[in-house]
Each structure stands twice: as structure tokens, then as C-alpha cells.
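User: Just a sanity check before I run the rest of the batch. Below are the C-alpha cells for the first item. I only need the designed sequence back.
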């Protein structure tokens, strides 16, 4: 039996915890059947590092943006640099962007302003966007809805962990839904059930590594190779084989982001 081919649609390979062994981490992902990875920038500097990794490794592509928790620290010229980087051929998406009411690192109005900028940039350059939503379901949906009126939305709810109602609304807005290691945690039956019901042409998987390591590796540094653990758990609730589920999520990732293959 061949290894099912997976795409990790959200990881942070530029984080300092990968500093000494990123080549090995990418290699073990490849061995585990991860054909492509999308490394996500969270600041200007992080986005620059993400693009550099995408230039260096064939299976790595980048997304560039300023994550909501970092918008208050953005300096003059940072946004312009993101716009510039977004045009790079190895950059497949804009983000991550969105709203975060959990950490409260930046005023919500400033987060919303940057969310708008990312959505407009995505539309202007024809590359999809990646949404980070932490305890801001209503506000995120409202802002997406507003943008949806100006044309169809092409984006993903990354590491989805809100409720069924929010999932339904995001699907109505044409969003893709991506699930990370949280869907494997023991107590998260509700999230698993939501993942189990996402239409087959709209579901994605990711690691969000180095964070959110899936069960049974919870608490350890996460890496793209472990996307298979999450995919297996979701395939099980969907009552399909990992091969079939991988085929679906990989096709979806290629359709949304334009990964080669
Ligand atoms: Ni992330």
C-alpha cells in the first residue's frame, strides 16, 4: 500500500523552534507523504523568512501577512512590504489574518483594519486568504459577509475550532474549512463531529506546527509530518479510508491554493 499524499496547508516553519533542523523536518514530512507545505508568515520579518524557505525548498510554499496578534507592532512600511511579497510566485496566499479576542494583543478596530487590508489584497492579486479566528466568531463572520458582497470569497478558516453554526455560515460564504490537531484531542467530540460533516470538496487539513501537536504527540513540538495523525482521525469520523480522505483534501488544497500536482 502506498503512503497517502497529504498537504499541510498551515505551518510556521520559520519559527525559532525549527531553526536548527528545518531541513530534517521537511525531509521527514516528505517521507510521511506530505507532498507540499504552506508556511505562514505572521509579521513582515516572518513573512520574509517564509518566502526565503519557499525559495529554498521545493515542497514549501509561503503565505504572507500580519497576524492579528502582531498588528499593533507593525512598523511603517511593513504592510507595503507584505503587498510586495504577496506577488512572489512562491507565495500562494495572503495571511494569516482575522480577529483574535482571546489574547487581546491589539485593539479590535486595528485588527479589523488589517483584516480588511488582507481581504482586499487577496482579491486584488487573485490569491486566496487565510483566516485566524479566536473567540471572535460573530465579528469574523460579519466582516467576511461584508466582503462577500463585493464578489465571491476565496479563503479558508484555518484551524477551525468554533461551533456548528459558525461552520455552517462559513460554508454558506463559500469558505474552505481547515482542521488541525485539536480535532484529535480526547474531549473535542463536538469539533470532530463538525469535521465529520464538512462537504468533501471543502475540507482541508493542517498542523499549525510547531503548535497544536495532535494526539498522541500532544504537548510536543508539532511538525508537518504529523498532519497524517489528524487526517486519520477525521477520516475515521467520516467513515472513509485515509487514502480517500487524503485524495479529497489534497485535491481541495490544490484547487484553493494552486499547489502543483
Ligand atoms: Ni498559524
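Assistant: Here's the designed sequence for the first item:
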Amino acid at each position: 500500500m502506498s503512503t497517502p499524499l497529504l498537504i499541510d496547508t498551515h505551518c510556521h516553519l520559520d519559527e525559532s523552534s525549527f531553526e536548527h533542523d528545518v531541513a530534517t523536518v521537511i525531509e521527514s514530512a516528505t517521507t510521511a507523504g506530505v507532498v507540499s507545505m504552506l508556511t505562514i508568515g505572521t509579521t513582515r520579518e516572518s513573512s520574509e523568512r517564509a518566502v526565503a524557505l519557499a525559495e529554498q525548498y521545493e515542497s514549501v510554499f509561503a503565505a504572507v501577512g500580519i497576524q492579528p496578534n502582531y498588528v499593533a507592532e507593525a512598523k511603517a512600511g511593513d504592510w507595503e512590504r507584505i503587498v510586495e511579497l504577496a506577488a512572489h510566485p512562491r507565495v500562494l496566499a495572503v495571511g494569516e489574518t482575522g480577529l483574535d479576542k482571546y489574547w487581546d494583543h491589539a485593539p479590535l478596530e486595528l485588527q479589523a483594519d488589517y483584516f480588511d487590508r488582507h481581504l482586499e489584497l487577496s482579491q486584488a492579486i487573485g490569491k486566496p486568504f487565510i483566516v485566524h479566528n479566536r473567540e471572535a466568531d460573530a465579528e469574523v463572520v460579519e466582516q467576511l459577509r461584508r466582503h462577500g458582497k463585493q464578489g465571491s470569497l476565496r479563503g479558508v478558516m484555518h484551524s477551525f475550532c468554533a461551533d456548528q453554526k459558525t461552520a455552517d455560515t462559513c460554508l454558506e460564504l463559500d469558505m474552505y474549512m481547515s482542521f488541525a490537531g485539536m480535532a484529535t484531542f480526547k474531549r473535542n467530540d463536538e469539533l470532530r463531529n463538525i469535521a465529520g460533516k464538512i462537504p468533501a470538496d471543502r475540507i482541508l487539513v493542517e498542523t499549525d506546527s510547531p503548535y497544536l501537536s495532535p494526539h498522541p504527540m500532544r504537548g510536543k513540538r508539532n511538525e508537518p509530518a504529523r498532519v497524517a495523525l489528524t487526517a486519520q482521525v477525521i477520516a475515521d469520523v467520516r467513515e472513509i479510508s485515509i487514502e480517500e480522505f487524503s485524495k479529497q483534501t489534497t485535491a481541495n488544497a490544490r484547487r484553493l491554493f494552486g499547489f502543483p500536482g
